[in-house]
Amino acid sequence: MALPPLSSTRCLLPLSLGLFQAVLLLFFALCVTYDEHSASPTNPEDTERVAKQLHSTFPFFQDIQVMLVVGLGMLLAFLPRYGLSALTHNFLLLNVSAQWALVLQGLLHRLQHGTTLLGLRSMISAEFAAVTVLISAGAVLGRTSPCQLLAMALCEVPVYVASEWLIVTKLGVLDVGGTITIHIFACYFGLGVSKALFGNAKPTVHPKETPTPRSDLLALLGALILWVFWPSFVAVLCQPGDTQHRAILHTLLALSAGAVTTVLISILLESNGKLSAAHLQNGSLAGGVAIGVVADLHISPAAALALGSLSSLLCILGFQFLTPLLAKKLALQDHCGIHNLHGLPGVLGAVASIVAALVAPGDGSGAGGHRQAWWQAAGLAVALGGSLLTGMLVGAALRLPCLAPPPEPLCFEDALYFKLKEGVENPPMPGSSTEGAPLAMKECV
Amino acid sequence: MALPPLSSTRCLLPLSLGLFQAVLLLFFALCVTYDEHSASPTNPEDTERVAKQLHSTFPFFQDIQVMLVVGLGMLLAFLPRYGLSALTHNFLLLNVSAQWALVLQGLLHRLQHGTTLLGLRSMISAEFAAVTVLISAGAVLGRTSPCQLLAMALCEVPVYVASEWLIVTKLGVLDVGGTITIHIFACYFGLGVSKALFGNAKPTVHPKETPTPRSDLLALLGALILWVFWPSFVAVLCQPGDTQHRAILHTLLALSAGAVTTVLISILLESNGKLSAAHLQNGSLAGGVAIGVVADLHISPAAALALGSLSSLLCILGFQFLTPLLAKKLALQDHCGIHNLHGLPGVLGAVASIVAALVAPGDGSGAGGHRQAWWQAAGLAVALGGSLLTGMLVGAALRLPCLAPPPEPLCFEDALYFKLKEGVENPPMPGSSTEGAPLAMKECV
Amino acid sequence: MALPPLSSTRCLLPLSLGLFQAVLLLFFALCVTYDEHSASPTNPEDTERVAKQLHSTFPFFQDIQVMLVVGLGMLLAFLPRYGLSALTHNFLLLNVSAQWALVLQGLLHRLQHGTTLLGLRSMISAEFAAVTVLISAGAVLGRTSPCQLLAMALCEVPVYVASEWLIVTKLGVLDVGGTITIHIFACYFGLGVSKALFGNAKPTVHPKETPTPRSDLLALLGALILWVFWPSFVAVLCQPGDTQHRAILHTLLALSAGAVTTVLISILLESNGKLSAAHLQNGSLAGGVAIGVVADLHISPAAALALGSLSSLLCILGFQFLTPLLAKKLALQDHCGIHNLHGLPGVLGAVASIVAALVAPGDGSGAGGHRQAWWQAAGLAVALGGSLLTGMLVGAALRLPCLAPPPEPLCFEDALYFKLKEGVENPPMPGSSTEGAPLAMKECV
After folding, report:
1. Percentages helix, strand, coil for chain C, rounded to the nearest 5?
2. Does domain C57-399 bear CATH number 1.20.1070.10?
3. What InterPro entries does the annotation carry (chains A, B, C) (predicted)?
């Protein structure tokens, strides 16, 4: 079967990438200067201070880069014939979104303070904005073209910047690990996009959508990389000292309890007492999602353990029962199960932060605690509602034919986007399972 | 062939995991408070001090997490059809053992000082306890069920805590990198378990026990990850300053000399001048095992190089000659060759520490040096003898049928523990080599 | 087909490795002492200073180790049947070259200052010397024996040490990220070796030289690991403080712009609007090569973005047009395309550093800037000319038959150097494509 003409991709994708990079270059040339830490300070004490801040932040930053580029990339490569595309789309989206967020957050700073400064801190904020795009993309992975994903990124980043500004700066929501601002926002934005993009077509299982043991192994390695570096993600923007120490400890405990609970629940739910690789890949990370919003508070180690266990339980129950239900009732497609990994544990974490605000004595009980609890609830509502709404608008826009959605038989197929060696390029007939494909095909992943 | 009923796994494993997590939660809720670094300090100087200590320890901690979760996991995935299980069992054992060690070490601290404190330092000590379980499991990898491994972990951790307390606190043995307390202890514990568990049945090579080039590549990558981060493991608990610097340098030199020697010896020993992947995966790490016990002493760079070379030599000779001999004479099964990687180089390192105590002028020659040499020898004897004995007791207990040992034809087989896609689930007939298996089977890793 | 007798490898390689390790041991025993940071300081302030320097350098050092051992190793494993060899040769070369550089740089220091000191800084310098060998080896990967590669390493390291001393110490060239001293030097040395070694034989595409989607995925992961840690490589030797901060920011911007440009250009150039995995693996790193020489200067963020984009453009154009041209006109073999990744972006970076010296007001315009521009140009000329010349001499020496060059049909074949399981050992007939090979062969990677 011949591949369809990809003229629109061939023109539109390079054109928009080129235009994007050119506009960005112009913006940087006109508006961006170094921040105080990268401009030359005039005295040794300043140099010392800058060096100290750099050395205390840079290792965290590198950990986060490994998570996003390597860990998440490998996790997304769980589809046996879509590894190269998943890794590449993730990498491209990260770069475009982070640069785009640098511009927008720079402009916001310019509006407020008169200049756009550049430093490692602004890089981290921009990475965080990019994370939302990477998470949302998980809902539509494999059934969307790079053009569609890029269009989504260009729309989602400004919404995130506005939402984060509203939630954190205006409402004063406490959310050091981005549970509300990043995970919940990104999840419901992605689900909104998926719903509006795919409409009411009942989701079917594509023959190429099933992982093999080999692709599952790679994805599990990716999940473990994310698991290892998760504390850096939660704690990078914490106040150095005891606050940051507490955030790291709570995240470690939540992740560890989540890992044990995941194995426990997966064996209980699966027939014959076997584990599911998908449960492991997601459930072991759920604790990290939930703990983010309370990690730096005095919630006690036991609470961190309990929250981690509960999140993993919720995540796996979501995979087992909620995802099929949503697919059946709402025709909702969620290819990587982002609702189970980011949505449910995120909401659980947000609820925990409300409870923590109400009961924690040290964090201002009485009037202060009650007020903070209201703000946390308001933040949850804004993130959830706003993202779902804007996500559906963006999803409707992604139906434009010029964005070159992949034809159904070529979904989840590297050959559509990559020049592969001969004998591998032509995918099997649509609908045929990989079992019946010629040998050369099977070898391709 | 139908899989055997796994009712005992289905009931026992989740039950024990659930019970374990519940007891642990209770303990944390009742007994654990933050340590001085995670509780809120009252003045800026304290905050500064806490921040400094955190930033100087956390990167080391993350390196060790990468080693244990990603590096060791990949190294253990050298069996082509057992990658998912090896990675998952390693991950589960790490989490259960570390939490269990947190409790036990917390109780020990409570006995001595009245409170159980929690901080990054206690996390590192708990990780070290967990390492012993991961090493010991290497002796019985593939022929044990998760229930058996969990039971082993629950028994091994208290023995380790007691042994480490006796060797380091009571005997005053110097062992910054855990050569005696971790590597030797874990190795002989694992061998004891293996001997008592498998009895006098002559070890046979299982048809699924042979690595493929692809699984060897993954395992080699895992070994290289361990190689890269090994200096962090050795130096994390060193006194900051020159001592830590020296420990890092010595470890780097020993590992580098070991890598060169490994290639040299492997080519000399193998027929036709070819390398063995197993030699590379283990020999290049042996230097790191041996150097741990003397890394922070003034042993001179040349001694570090020599120790690294000797360890790798010993390790490869062990693989080539000792392992077959032990299998033949003692019917001893050691699936990952932990005796060659942890036992022999560990003993070599311990001997080196005795020599170093005798000859080093700066570390107290004369009476002091002689006394320390005796303590080092006593530590070696305690670690070796105690672990072998308790390991055999634990191994005998693991023969309980309710722990669901895998039936011989399903050893080294992911399909026993993982829900795999159709056509892959059913393993080939027992005894048949993978060469004759249907195509779908071969593809599964 | 029987493998050829490898007697020379069997004798020569272990012999030379053993001799090398023995000589090195002797040198260390006689000449090397700790540097000021690893010898015992006498007062707490010194300890504090040493600890601070160690904690600010060690995370960078570990990042670089991951790049060289894991990232580069995986990138070189893009050939489906040569993964184990590529990874192992890279690892062996790194260790031999770094030890050899420690000796030579130690002797140079001894000549100038009377002693040979050892510390983390000297380890980093030695690693940098080893990087040149790893890059140069990319030009002849798969068609050279370990003996030949070792001989090359032993020759290249002294030339690098001399060249680096001349360029940086004598000419005062500014090159914080090693663009001129490492990348340009290594590239043209490797091309010189390749030209002299393979002579005027027209390069043909070997049937085993084509990557599969699976090996491409592994190589892409390796490239992404390099991409993530590249800022550490560029900034490790920077002055702590604002200079280092700037170097990190510029490298991040250049790499990010390069990633976007790579996708853009690859889609434009490839037929049907598809991506090439080779373009991605190399183009996304080109920005890091070019930025090294100007990363710590006040070049402005926009210039970093522009330089990153331009480098990637140049790199991909090189793959598409220059490599075939050089192969046709000069019969030049460059198996990994090091000229496109290291040569072209390196020269671009060097030119940028000349321009920066001419125009940058803060870095001494007028007479000072002009003079520095001349030095940068002189450095470029020395690195390029010197490496090409010495590389050709070394390449001619590598034609010695005793260095056991692999026979053409066994090039790019792990079975030549590794003991593989039965049924995999015998490679297919020369010239036959892998498509026609028996099943067991195909499975081997």
Report:
1. 75, 0, 25
2. no
3. Ammonium/urea_transptr, NH4_transpt_AmtB-like_dom, RhesusRHD
